[in-house]
Structure formats: structure tokens, C-alpha cells
Amino acid sequence: MFSNIKERFISAIAPDLPPLPGAGERRIGAGSGHLHNSPHQRLRFGGSGSQPLPDKFPYARPPFLQLLTADELRASADHNVRPIIVPRDINLLPWGTGYAECVNSGKSEWNEDQGAFCRQVLSDPEHKHPDLPYTYFGIFDGHAGYGAALAASHQFHHILHEKLVDCLELLLPRDVDPSSGGGDGIQLNPTFPHPIYFQRRVTKDELIIGALESAFFNMDSLIAQDNDRYRDAGGCTACVSLFIDGKMYVANAGDSRAVLCQRRATPDRQQTDTHSSIEPDPLEVSCYPVPFSADHTPETERERLLNVARLKPQLMGQHYVAMEYAKRPHIKDMGQRILCRQGTMRGWTYKTLTREDLRMPVVNGEGKRSRLLGTLGVTRGFGDHDLLAINTGIQIKPFLTPHPDVRQRDLTQVVCISDEDNRDGDYGVLVMATDGLWDVSENEGVARIVFQTLSKYPTEKHRYTMVAQELVARARGKINDSGHWRLADSKAAATVDDISVIVIPVSQYYKEHVEWTQNYKRDLEHRRRQAQANMAQEAVTVLNGVMAEEAQVVEEEEEGEVVVHEARTSQKPQQVEDGVDETLVVELAPSLEQVQLKDKDSAAFDIGKKDNDKDKEASTTRQHLQQQFQKGRKGKGKH
Amino acid sequence: MSYAYLFKYIIIGDTGVGKSCLLLQFTDKRFQPVHDLTIGVEFGARMITIDGKQIKLQIWDTAGQEAFRSITRSYYRGAAGALLVYDITRRETFNHLTTWLEDARQHSNSNMVIMLIGNKSDLDSRREVKKEEGEAFAREHGLVFMETSARTAANVEEAFINTAKEIYEKIQEGVFDINNEANGIKIGQQHSPTNPSLPGAGGAAGAANGGCC
């Protein structure tokens, strides 16, 4: 019967097409979480025909789970038992990061979620700057196939890495001491404009956010490019976190979610410890979630979707209407007044019902049941390039976007009193999970379970894995005698979807950053000393040959200068870092002089200024000297 | 490789009794003296032959720690056989058998075959539980009993295979409903041509099989 509907439906939308090509090129949405729970169809037009296309990546679970054999894969996808899979080697993930997953109850043969992580280092090819390490985690919830999520888990971090490398020179800390050879940071690459020439202020934050955003777009295009060569990948959501330079960034497209679970260090807690009196669970009141992403569903993105429909009505064909009705219009109501709102209206108004109003709204349903074009329950992410709407065959992709929203947290600004022993509470524990978890869990409840579980296992190496496992176990629930999955603490339905959870101890990345900063400063100091030694040597060599008389003066002055610079750096290393690292400033050229004045104190911009305006300001002896030093260096470099 | 039946096993018992080592010895024929704690569940598989029929054993090796108990309980469902393991050199692991057995009986299907295993028989000098005690416990609760050593591989093969034989007999007697996968038995491709295969391996057949109507 099912195939009957299918055939009829196909001939309705594409009567001229030959019979369906191989099974590999079609998907029947058997109630995949994001898809409407009825048959829908994807077709590849102009496909070559009978030969099914290969998978780009063979189906697998995330490598850190080490489910290497087909037998293990098969066992992990047991829909009757839904085993909770955790990494068997805890050391494969950084800092004891927790991970747990569980397959759906049978709506798709395989777990269509994927997780990924990567620890990488951004290094300056000329090794003039210390390496900048970063850590990335990603979670991808696939629908209508596992291909897109699998591709994203394999490829996204490579794209992101490229994007970060692209702006490497602006991200790497600048060597702020002029005596170390002046504008190394500036002259690093002559073709790359120094931020001082930018028309706008561009912060490091914006560079990293931009890297994430553009990586999302590239990932989506990559899946589009592979569309003709490989089996239809379906689509997926993407939720990504990036820890870099003492900050945490979360980029999300779709209905997976990242929540930072925090806990206040409450005085009650200490009291209970000492008096051990009976008090309400302090975790109840002290835990709180901070959302780090917003879900993108037809309901939350109603405005954007209706704008797309309004601007390009042809995308709706003759099948949809960009309206919302207080009550579903019926043919018998024709000519009567009905409460509705048009396009992106917030309030409601009356209109007289016409035939057009009987078309399906672009967005219908509410909450988790809201659907775009009656088909899709998620509105951002990768893939879905071939997805057609149920019953109408309208292309859905133009309504979708891979654009993520990106949120950021500066870990260096977190206040954490070491005596309180509340690092996880202060810095937070980042829980990233697919909608399998969030469909049946509130953010508050998740935050509570995080800290309950952590306090249950205060020292275990795998305590964050225990958290992830506990969260998955609760969302999956238990199967009852009639074969339905129910939550343990109520009769409510548990999720039947795939569930994946990553639990990240954020404080570790602050610790890592502090260590890195210390190493970096040591390294910098070392470089400086070396540079100074070299420069003095060079100066002597150069000046000896050129002007023997002046050379003596130079040496004396040079020594004096070293002292000045050392004093300067030791006085305010923090300030220098703030001024330079945070904002790679950048004003319009006419106000250049102003900038120079403003930044008179900043050593870094001292260099820039001198370097750029050499001709103008080469009147003082100091300037003169520096120029000569640089000439000397350059000269030496050429030999 | 095709099989006539797939039997699902679960290995249970206190932490440190050698569950993972038994599995490793059976599937890989090797012994790993230092084994990390099992967190959650691990899987193993091996093909055996009974009565001329290829039978695949899919074995779920569970974490023994108390903290995992509530999660491992959910794995009893859908197992055709269970190996209940204690350590002959640690009496408390023997004393806990009753709790394990209650758990297993409560959460599994009633036909599940349970094999009682006293592991580490190579450490006879440190023995705390007599073989006769194991035998008596098994008799009392209607279990099959065997002492094994994952280190020397003694009786390991037999433990897994004898359990399979028992399950196979029950199938022949018609005790098991083999069409209900929740009983831990699956009919292989030799019997059912529509058995889903791994994607990639079986071409496009796998992914389109998403359990609809």
C-alpha cells in the first residue's frame, strides 16, 4: 500500500520522469525526527539512472567510540535495547570530556547523529609567533539519511581550520616589543594588510565568529558539490563549540542545543557540610543553565521564513500561502471573516476568506510539531539540497540556511574564587546535545543532573562521561511491556529519537589558556633577549663599517633604550595585551595621526607608527637609529 | 558471513571478576592482564557451529560497578543467554550472585539461559570459593555451572558454546519465539533473505530500510 501511494505521488509531481532509480537515490521519510511523519520524497532530477551512487564516507560512529567492526556497529544500533554508548577509552577525548549516545527506537536503521572533536594548533609558517592551540567539538543531527551528518563530522573541522589559518596573522598574538626587530607583526606578510589600514574596527572575536560562519557556509556547499557524485546525504543540524585564545565560542544551526550549566557557590552548601542538617537539596537552587544557542525551527524562524516567501513568492509555487490563521480555514468558511496574520506580523487581524487561504501555510503547527512546507521541522543546517516538500514537490532548500548564530564567552573574565572549589560551577559545564535530549529535558533539569552527577562522582576520571550517560539514560527512559519508551520518573513518553550528548568541563580551557599565556610570555622574553643581542651585534657591525664615529654614540644610546623597553614591558604587560590583542584597531587613514597620539603609550603601535611614517618623523636620533638598525637587519637578511 | 541464527548474550557479575577478559579470550583468543574498567557496555562477536549450523554470538560485556547497574539492567532485555560471572578468589563476588540473579530474572525474558561461571580457576592457591559451592548454587537456581580461566583459556570456549547449545535446544523444543527479536535471537540470512545488511557492504539496501509500515 505504501508503495502505491509513493508511485502515485511521484507521478503527480514529476509525470515525465522515468521510474525511480536505484534505492540509493530516494529516501522515504519514515518519521525521521525532523521530517513530517508521512511518506515524503526526494528525487534527483537528471540523475543518470539505475546505478546507485556510493557513500562518500562509509557509515561509522564517531572514531573515539572505537566501534570498529560491523558487528559492533550492528550491536550498538539495537533498536530494542538502545544501548548507551560511551567512549571505552576515556583518554581519547580531551580533559575527560564526557560523551554518550543512544540509537533511536527504530525510525531509522542507523543512528543518524554524529559527534566530532579536534585539537589543533594554529602555527605561523615562519615561526615568528608562538603556536595558538584550539579545541573544537561538533554535534550533528542527521535527517533523511546519515550522509550529511557523517560528512560534517569528517570535514567540518578541516574547513574551520582553513578559515582560522586564513586570518592567522590577525589572531596570533603580536610581538609587542619594538626592540625585537620592530614591526615583525606588521611586516610578516607584505601582501596582508595590517589592520591599521582597515576601514572598520575588526576584533579578534569577529574574526573567529567569521571563521565559524564561513565554515558553516562552506560545509553546506561542499555537501551540495558532492550531490552528484555520492549517494544523497540528507541533511543535518550543526552545533559546534570552539575553545581558542581563552574564549569559548558556540555556533549553532538547527535544533541541537548548547547549554552552559553553572552553579553558584552558595554559603548554604558550606553550612550543610559542617552541620549536616537536613536541608532542601542545595543543587535545586544553586544550579542554573545559560543557553548558548537558539533552536532554529519553523516556529522560531517564522519571521525569516515568511520573509523569504514574501520576497520570492515563486518559491511557494501555487501550493502555499505566507499566512497564519487563528483557526484552520475550511472551504465551508469561504467568504467569512477569519483572524489571521500576514507575513511577519506579530498581531492578528481579520480578513475575508478566499480560495487562496485554503492553501497550506508556509509554516504550520506549533512547537516541536511546527513544520516548514508541511515537511521539515528544522530550518538551518547542512544538506537537504534535494529535499522536496510532501505532496507538492516544492524545493525546500531555498528556505533553509546554514547560517549559524554564534555566542561567545570570555573565560578570562570569569570570577572564580579558588577557595570555593567551584570551578565547574563558575566556568560552567557545556552540554551540547541533539534534540533527542532536549525534546524531553528542560535546561534547568539538565543543569541539575550535571551537578548532581558530578557531586556523586567527585574524583572519578570519567565523571563527565557519567554525566553524559546519565543525561542520555534519562532521555531514553525505559521500555514498557507494550514496547513504548517511557521516562523513568513519570509516565510521559521518552524520546524515540537518536540522542547524543557532549559534556565539556569549560574550566580546563581557561587553565590551558593561562598555561599557554605563561609559556608564551616566557617564549617572548626569550625571543626579545635574543633579538636584542642580535641587534646590538648587527648595529655594531653595520655602524663600524659606515660611520665609525657615530657608532659609539649609538651603542651608548642603544643600551639606554633597552632599559626603557624592559621597564615598559614589565610595568604593564597586561595593558599591552589588552590594547593590542583585543582590538586590532583600525581607523580611517585621515585619523591616523590621532590614533598615534592615542596609542602613544602602547608599544605596539609605537612600532606601527614609526614604521609607517618613517619619512615624516625621522628627525630624532632614536628614530634615526632604529631605521639604521632595520636597514642593517634587512641587509643581513639578504646575504 | 551468513548465519542461521544470531544469539545475543550478556555477561554480568561484580567488577573485576574478569568479564571483559572472558570476552576477549573467546573472541580474540588472547588474555590482557591489565584491563581498563568497562564503562557502559562493550560488544564482541564470534561465529560458532552447532549441529552443523552457523551461529553468530553477539556478546554484550557490561560494566560491573554498582554505578552502572541501573543502565546495565536495561540490557537484559533482548538477551537469549547470560554469563553470570564470579571470581573464585573473592568470596564477596560469590555472595553477590543472588542479587545479580534476581536482577537478571526480573529484567530478562523468562527463557533466558543463564550460565554460572567461576572465573580465575588458574589461581587455585588463592581460592576462596570451593567448586562444590558453585555447583550447589547452580543446582539450587537451575543454572549451568562451569569454572573457567580467562588467562589459560580453560573452559572459556565451552562456557560460551554450551550456553549456545542450550539455547539451540530450546529453539528446537519451540520454547523460544524466534520471531520476536526481543528474545535475543535473530534468524539469519539463510532463513530470511530480507535480513538488513550493513550500509556500504550491501550497497544501497541498508539505508532505505528505515522501519516504515
From TrEMBL, chain A:
Domain of life: Eukaryota
Record key words, sorted: Hydrolase, Metal-binding, Protein phosphatase
Cross-referenced Pfam families: PP2C
Residue ranges constituting the PPM-type phosphatase domain according to the UniProt record: 107-506
Residue ranges of the region described as Disordered: 599-639
A single cellular component GO annotation: mitochondrion
Biased composition, class Basic and acidic residues, residue ranges: 599-619
Protein's UniProt keywords contain Hydrolase: yes
Entry's Gene Ontology molecular function annotations: [pyruvate dehydrogenase (acetyl-transferring)]-phosphatase activity; metal ion binding
Database matches in Gene3D superfamilies: PPM-type phosphatase domain
Record bears the keyword Hydrolase: yes
PROSITE patterns noted in UniProt: PPM_1, PPM_2
Family per similarity comment: Belongs to the PP2C family.
Protein name: Protein phosphatase 1H isoform X1
From TrEMBL, chain B:
Lipid bilayer topology: Lipid-anchor
Protein's cellular compartments: Endomembrane system; Golgi apparatus
InterPro entries from the UniProt entry: P-loop_NTPase, Rab_GTPases_membrane_traffic, Small_GTP-bd, Small_GTPase
One GO cellular component term: Golgi apparatus
Keywords associated with the record: ER-Golgi transport, Golgi apparatus, GTP-binding, Lipoprotein, Membrane, Nucleotide-binding, Prenylation, Protein transport, Transport
Lineage top rank: taxon: Eukaryota
GO biological process, one term: vesicle-mediated transport
Keyword Transport assigned: yes
Bias kind Gly residues: ranges: 200-213
Chain positions covered by the region annotation Disordered: 192-213
Gene Ontology MF term list: GTP binding; GTPase activity
Family: Belongs to the small GTPase superfamily. Rab family.
NCBIfam families reported for this sequence: small_GTP
Protein name: Ras-related protein Rab-2
Source organism: Drosophila suzukii (Spotted-wing drosophila fruit fly)
Gene that specifies this protein: Rab2
